[in-house]
Every structure is written in structure tokens, then in C-alpha cells.
Predict the structure.
Amino acid sequence: MIAKSKQLDFKDIYEIINDASSAYKGIIPADRWKEPYMTEDELQSQIADGVEFWSYQQDSVIIGVMGIQHKPDVTLIRHAYVRTTARNKGIGGKLLKHLSTLTDKPILIGTWADATWAIAFYLKNGFRQVSHIEKEQLLRKYWNIPLRQIETSVVLASPDFDIMKINEQDGI
């Protein structure tokens, strides 16, 4: 079952993010890895910044989470994680499909460039990787992340995303 997360789900979301992010250890640049991968304060900050988490529950236990963040002209998918013990069972795909129905705007997703499994997942689900120039522009505009993370990340876009429309709106 997919449901919008509540404040009482905070500990589960925090636990799942830090469990599932263990897949990045040794893959992403060492200077970007830390334990815990996301602190409770960082998670609270993400929620305060408008990230709405949705959870996938099985037998009343949350086993996957995915965030959605609405921006004026796009929607971001943020922090998509499934418990290590529940990976490769279609949970991420179900969450992504559900969250995609919650917006009529193009969707953007940022992930680590070396997380090939994550990139393959989004490509399999109909997203396309944007160019390096577009990635730089989009990460600076829609995300609040350090320069080093911008350098080592990629952005994937839904089929209806058009960088020209974004540039027109920005007067570029």
C-alpha cells in the first residue's frame, strides 16, 4: 500500500534512507560519503523545504520511501530508497509511478553519476538523462546542494521536460 507519510513515520523514513544508502558506500566519491548518510536534522530540513514523503507499506511495515517536491515549473523526485532486504521487488517502480500521478509538471530526478543501478532504474521507467550543461543549470536552479555534489551527479527528466521552456521562463 502506498500512503503519504505522516510525522510519526519520521523514524522509519530516517532508518530506510540510511539503510538503503549503504549501497552508495565505496561508489560515490569518498568526500561525499558520511555516516549517517542523512542526519535527522538534514531530513527535517528537507521536509521543511517542501519534500513530501510517500511510503510503501507491506503488512503495516514501511519498506520503501520516496519524496516529491513541487517547484513552480517542475516537480522533483527526491530521496528514493527501499530497505536493503526488500530491493528488486518493484517497490521503487510502484512509488515512482504513483508520485508521477501527483503532478502535471515535468519531473526531474537527481542522483549520483556513479550510481549506475539508480540511473538504469530511471531510464527503465521512461526518464532520460539530460546533457552535462543542462544538468549543471538544473541542479543549481532547483536543488540546494554543494558544488562537489553538482560535479558528481546527473539529472534525469521525464519525457515531457523541455529545457527550452525553462530557459524562456528564465529569460535565457
Summary: The CA atoms of residues 11 and 159 lie 34 Å apart. The two ends are 43 Å apart (CA to CA). DSSP finds seven helices and seven strands in the chain.
